Amino acid sequence: MKDGLNVAEMSRSPSFSMKTDSNPKLDRKSLRQWVVAFCIIKFDLEQGQLIEECHPPGCLTQDEELEVAFSSFPDSVSQHQNRSSIHDCIFFFRFRRQENSQQGKVSSSEISEVEEKEKSPKLVDQVKRLKSTGDCKGERYLYGYVFNRQRHDERLKRGGDQRSVVILSHNPYTSVFRPLLQIMGPLYFDIGKKALEHIASCVSIWPAPIPGKLMELPIGNAMLKVNLPPAHSLPSDSGVLFEESNSSMAPFLPTNQSIPQGLFHDSDLFGIFRGLLLQLWVLWELLLIGEPILIIAPTPPQCCEAVAGLVSLVAPLLYSVDFRPYFTIHDPEFARLNSLQEGDIFPPVILGVTNLFFLKALRTVPHVISVGSPSPNSNRPVLAARSSTGRFPTRPEGLGLQQFSLRKFSPSNLLSAVKLRREGPLCLMTEHKEAIWSTYAATTKPDTSILNRLIDAGMSSRVEESMSVVNNEILRRHFLELTTNFLAPFGPYFRVVTPLEGSSPFVDPPPLTPFNADEFLGNLSSRGPGKFLSKRMRSNWLDLYRRFLRGNNFMPWFQRRRAVAEQEQQRLWRQARMNTNIQNFISKMSELEIVDSFNAIERHLLGETQGVFKFKEKFQGRRITSVIKMILLISLWIMLESIALNSL
To answer: Global pTM?
Structure first.
């Protein structure tokens, strides 16, 4: 991990101390900007998983408490651990909140109220964006970040016990909550539930999250320095309206490559997919078109890292398909998926699982990936496959010629690949192997020049850690460029128009170029995909665009991108009105044009004043510039009215 604390620091909780003498009071409103609740889950021998503590209380419904409790433990206690050892691991899950849950929910009625009371053009644009992406149906997702401790002790019933410390949040900020768990998890097992109160108080004084920025977040005597994902990658189901920049969104290649361009930028893409590197281009296409994928891994940290790595692969595209980093049979969605019959279309979703039962229960899923390796004896907290094993196997199993690894090809490998394909994913029931089962024929060719730049760290786990960072940067930069170039043909549909010199800025700006899928594909077919993609895609590249247009990712991304472009165009035209010399402008007008301009300015003023005088307190700081602009417009309005009356 690049952000936050080092993995090794997780076992050094005594070096961390809380500033108990100046412990801040809990500010619930500020806390909810980052965290919904902190929970302690215990495994009771008679009642099963139970929420022992929840701070602040009353944040979850009873059904949500059950779902959090069941998702906060590995499916089974690892059999590779020393029977007297303590085993810690970190992973995260995601589930859909119930529609009747009132905690932090932005309902359609509240959206309507905002539209009626707050007619700010920017805010209305953002509300429209929420509606257009279909995320205002009360279906909000909650993320659970888990620090799980399994303690083996023969003196206890069933040979041990286990508890989990869980951070619940609406934000997909792994770069924040994983290092925070490195502090909070060991601290709880040192001082008990007081750790929840201390951490909650510290988090409540954090500044509001600023997407796409490097933030310094104090926690006790430590400081978390973390990069947050940009606003254009955040799902709008969070109910938080972030201001988005027109220039920072695809299809424009970002000028600053060091800034994260998507979700889960801290995931170890190279480490978790090291045995399947040649398949990354296949997986990139499956993600692009929104295909369902089942990921099998031996441990929750490994399947979470794989799901997070896949989602990060399509940055800067807004990934709108449902994904579950750690999915269990207790999730309410499982019953629906399990009821699918042969021939039924599996819904678009990425499922990360460790329970091999899913191989039989979800046989209709078209793409299955197995990653990771069973954990050896270790008492270090597991963050990902790389962290749990020290190093990755240098001889991963795969699919023969399509398999890239850090070794030479041999006939025996081809035989292994044929056997894997014949046996199918059910072969994992007897032995875990890294492989992919899919009938999808990819359009994009693997870039061997990128693979040749990757570094094999050898036996040293410390060197492996550093080299994974380098390799992740190489892979992430390549797929960022690949995705950006793929989205580039949509650029003309987001192009804003500014007022021409000498023309009136008081008329309504022209609409953006209308989009027609058939016309787009026809023009693209005659023009070609561009130099970058032409070298990397086969002759059927247009089929990939057709699939993308039909998939679940295109319309949410396109509509959100259009909304941001329209917002930017409105801002530019508003700025042009501010900069207009009204006297010079009117001196060149006829009487009829002066009256028309007066009516246009009056209409724009009404829109501005409704957005200024009817806004809630939380928007006041953001609207100071709008108030100033409005005052300037009123002055211009009075001047124009006087000139118009004199002219008439």
So the answer is: 0.80
